[in-house]
Amino acid sequence: MTTSSNPYLTKPRVYLLGRQAIVQEELARFLNDEGLTFTTDTPVAAEMLNEIAGRICYLSFGKGRKSNQEYLENILSSKHGSVLEHAVWNLLITGVSRSLTHELVRHRAGFGYSQLSQRYVDESDARYVVPPLYQENEALRRQWEQTIEYLRKAYADLAEATTQYVQQKFPAMAPRDRRKWARQAARSILPNACETKIFVTGNSRAWRHFLELRGSPHADMEIRLLAVEICRVLKRESPNIFADIELVDEPDGAPSIRVLHSKV
Question: How far apart are CA 88 and CA 110, in angstroms?
Fold first, then answer.
């Protein structure tokens, strides 16, 4: 979807940009140094790392539960959540509003964020995220879009006027800095619906916590729908770590997330 064709967005996009890999040579060196034997049936590096981390605690390599699925099910059911902090994924999220990311970045433990800067990026042609409630009512959406169009023009006019003012006040300032000064002032009138892009790194324990809270039927609908998309990505990535998390159809017409082993 391009800005010229349609500046209004109705759903988020999630791009899986990074996952972990096992350094097999170092794993083999550790096992040899310690005189241990270890095999696992999962091809997923994150699942293998969680199993290795858990087995380190009791030096249970080659003992007890044989399959990775069985091992991680025990981790989940006994709520040994610290073991899950060793598996990490990197997601790039687009098509979400500033309102959503204000809630997203409250999740601190186990997460890292890098977000589009409105100080450096010209938002004259920004896209805007239509709240789910307005997507189902044509009259309300039309009123909402009219307001957005007014603010879009107001931002562009204000940014241009501010750039000229800064140039007059600081004629020796570099053009790049003048634009930054103008945009950081003009952005104050941009609405929360303005689309943003955010790069998020999180470990599996943190992602599980996010999914449980933001996938709830009681969560804001926009971030709930994002949680559903992330849930689909992560369940494909790691069926064993997220095995107890499922999507459920709700009476309001949107899916929610149900977690069997809560607060791991």
Answer: 9
Per-residue pLDDT of the chain (264 residues; tens, 9 = 90+): 344 478 999 999 999 999 999 999 999 999 999 999 999 999 999 999 999 999 999 999 988 878 999 999 999 999 999 999 999 999 999 999 999 999 999 999 999 999 999 999 999 999 999 999 999 999 999 999 999 999 999 999 999 999 999 999 999 999 999 999 999 999 999 999 999 999 999 999 999 999 999 999 999 999 999 999 999 999 999 999 999 999 999 999 999 999 999 999
Q: Is 224 assigned a catalytic role?
A: no
Q: What residue spans define the domains of the chain?
A: 21-85, 136-189
This model's pTM is above 0.70: yes
Select which of 127, 187, 214, 224 is catalytic: 214
Q: 172-188: buried (b, 16+ CB within 10 Å) or exposed (e) per residue?
A: eeeeeebbbbbbebbbe
